[in-house]
Amino acid sequence: MEKKSVSTSKVQIAQIMMPNNSNPSGNIFGGVIMSIIDNAAAIAALRHTHHNCVTASVDRIDFLSPVYVGNLVIAKASVNYVSHTSMEIGVKVEAECLLKGTKSHIASAYLTFVALDENDKPTSAPELILESEEEKRRFEEGKIRRESRIKKRKRVSPNAPCIDRSNRRGLSF
Ligand SMILES: CC(C)(COP(=O)(O)OP(=O)(O)OC[C@H]1O[C@@H](n2cnc3c(N)ncnc32)[C@H](O)[C@@H]1OP(=O)(O)O)[C@@H](O)C(=O)NCCC(=O)NCCS
Predict the structure, then answer these.
(1) Which homologous superfamily does the CATH classification assign to the domain defined by 4-152?
(2) Domain ranges of the chain
C-alpha cells in the first residue's frame, strides 16, 4: 500500500458560532466543540485512508477558554500516528473574534480512528511519510499514547443493528 505524507490529509475546518450553539449561560455548549473536533479528525482519517473510518476513542479534551456567540471556531487536524488499522489524529481548536482579528487556543484533543472495509471490518491504513522533525516527534509521542490506550481498552460484545440497513445508500469508497 502506498505511504502517505502527513500534509496530504491535513485539514482545517471553520464554523461561526450561532445563538443556537450556546448553553443556558450564553457561552458555546461543549458538545458543539466536541462535534467540530470529531468532524475535523474524521476528514483527516478519510483523506488519509480513502476508507470509511469510525471514532474508536477520544483522549481527554481540555477546554482552555470559553467560546462565545460570534466566534469563528477553527479546528486543525492531522494524522500523528498510524498503527495497522488505527490512526491517532491530533486536533487543535482556536476561536477567532472576527471583529477584532484575535485568536485564542481553546481546546486540543487526540482521537483514534479505525479504517473499515466494505464489510465494516477494520482494514489497513497507509503508513505515514514523516517529513519534518515535528512530524517525527508527534509520531513517537502518538506511539506511546497508543500503548497506554490499548492497555485501558474495554471489550464488549457488539451491539446488533436495530434496523435493516442492507439496502442502505451511503458513501461508497
Ligand atoms: C473501533 C472498532 C471498529 C474496533 O473493532 P474491533 O473488531 O474490536 O477491532 P480490533 O480489535 O481488530 O481493533 C482494530 C484497531 O482498533 C484499535 N482500537 C480498538 N478499540 C480502541 C480504543 N478504544 N482505543 C484506541 N484504539 C482502539 C485497535 O488497537 C486496532 O488497532 P490496530 O489495527 O492499528 O492495531 C469497533 O469497536 C467499533 O466499531 N466501535 C464503534 C465505533 C463507532 O461507531 N464510533 C462512532 C461513535 S458511536
Answers:
(1) Hotdog Thioesterase (3.10.129.10)
(2) 4-152
Report the distance separating Cα 94 and Cα 108, nearest Å. 9
49 lines ligand 1 (CB under 6 A): no
Question: What is the whole-number distance in angstroms between the Cα of residue 154 and the centre of ligand 1?
Answer: 10
Which residue lies with its CA nearest to atom 38 of ligand 1?
Answer: 56
Q: With b meaning 16 or more CB within 10 Å and e meaning fewer, what string describes 53-84?
A: beeeebeebeeeeebeeebebbbbbbbbbbbe
Per-residue pLDDT tens digits for 82-118: 999 999 999 999 999 999 999 999 999 999 999 999 9
56 C-alpha to ligand 1 centroid (Å): 5
Residue owning the nearest CA to atom 12 of ligand 1: 122
Instruction: Output the pTM of the full model.
Output: 0.95
The rounded Å distance from CA 111 to ligand 1 centre is: 12
